[in-house]
Amino acid sequence: MDNSKSDITQLKQSLKPAGAYMDSLADFADLLGTIKQAENAAKELLEETAVKSTVKPVVEPAAKPGEKAAAADSREQPGSKPADGTVEHSGEQSLTAGTKAVPADETAEKAPTLEELMTKLDALVGLENIKQNVKSLINYVKIRKLRQENELPNPPLSLHMVFMGNPGTGKTTVARILSGLYRAIGVLSKGQLIEVDRSGLVAGFVGQTAPKTVEVAKSALGGILFIDEAYSLAPDISSGNDFGREAIEALLKMMEDHREDLIVIVAGYSEPMERFIASNPGLESRFNRYFMFEDYNSDELNKIFCSMCEASEYLLTGDAEEFARGYFRELYDTRDENFGNARRVRNFFENIVTVHSDRISALEDPTREDLTTVLREDLEAAANM
């Protein structure tokens, strides 16, 4: 008991007097008042600045999860495919940071006209038979619409197509132009191109392929579904275990259910594509338009190469031009069934840029002429890479 009293006594002695606590509270209150005054002053300053300001900053909304900004591709080359194997090409553009926000009807990119798209088609290197086939098809569709408007009968029409040929012959580029042309004449409501391969349609487990294929086809409604290397959906006609067959059946149903607003283009090497179409009666009945994309000849390959140089402001010397003509002539004469065409040209061009960069980086103070001039030795080194 005595020990407890002693502890209480020591505790009381260690505590501050009540007055000290009151002083601390008063100081704290003064501090709070000072902070409040500072906040009020800052608020008044901000309000005054806002009133005097003539330009209000534009705050861009944060992107929603999963939202993608579409951008125009000036080279018209397919983008890299995401994990699901699909690539969407559209004419939409997003505002860049710092750009003043304007109404949606002002930011929406104007869809190209029929004349503009036909000019774009004509500007493609080579592909003369493809250009003529596309023009004939567009004329046929336009006349069908006029006959319909005049209450005249039209035979059944299928616009699904088979593009056959080696890689790099412009199949995707022509498909993109076609999607715009069909939109311009009112055949398609949107005109987007959805590019997909086997990985974008076929799942790894039973029962998942059909829903996956349907989802991809729905994303193409109003436009064109472009299936590259479509023959991979039926790699072995005698086998009934491949999930590609399930994708084909689901695709055929979507083509039937949405025949007014969905066009499917299947593409790939000629012989495998013929076997693919023959693998299913439904494919044979729906795909009755065949476009053969021939290999580019040496002059066309050289023209594609020169256009790439011009677009990037690289100038070839006379010796370099001579070497390029001979290089593409040999490339064409020795080609095989896997010839890459324009893809091979792009690889060659990119190798030249690499060699040129290595050479110019060794100069102490390169001029503009150095930065743009490509020598024969650059092409020779690139050809050996």
Note the topology.
Elements: H1 2-14, H2 18-52, E1 86-89, H3 104-107, H4 114-122, H5 128-149, E2 161-165, H6 171-184, E3 193-196, H7 198-201, H8 209-219, E4 224-228, H9 244-257, E5 263-268, H10 270-278, H11 281-286, E6 289-293, H12 298-311, E7 315-316, H13 318-333, H14 342-361, H15 368-372, E8 373-374, H16 376-383
Parallel strand pairs: 2-5, 2-6, 3-4, 4-5, 7-8
Antiparallel strand pairs: 1-3
Helix pairs in contact: 4-6, 8-9, 12-13, 12-14, 13-16, 14-16
What features would you describe in this structure?
With 385 residues, this protein is an alpha/beta fold. It has two domains: 86-94 and 104-293, 3-Layer(aba) Sandwich (Rossmann fold); 298-383, Orthogonal Bundle (Helicase, Ruva Protein, domain 3), CATH 1.10.8.60. Helix content is 53%, strand content 9%. The protein has helices at 2-14, 18-52, 104-107, 114-122, 128-149, 171-184, 198-201, 209-219, 244-257, 270-278, 281-286, 298-311, 318-333, 342-361, 368-372, 376-383, and strands at residues 86-89, 161-165, 193-196, 224-228, 263-268, 289-293, 315-316, 373-374. The strands form two sheets. The chain has a six-stranded mixed β-sheet, sandwiched between helices. Strand 4, helix 9 and strand 5 form a beta-alpha-beta unit. It is globular. The termini are far apart. Residues 15-22, 49-84 and 89-108 have low confidence and may be disordered.
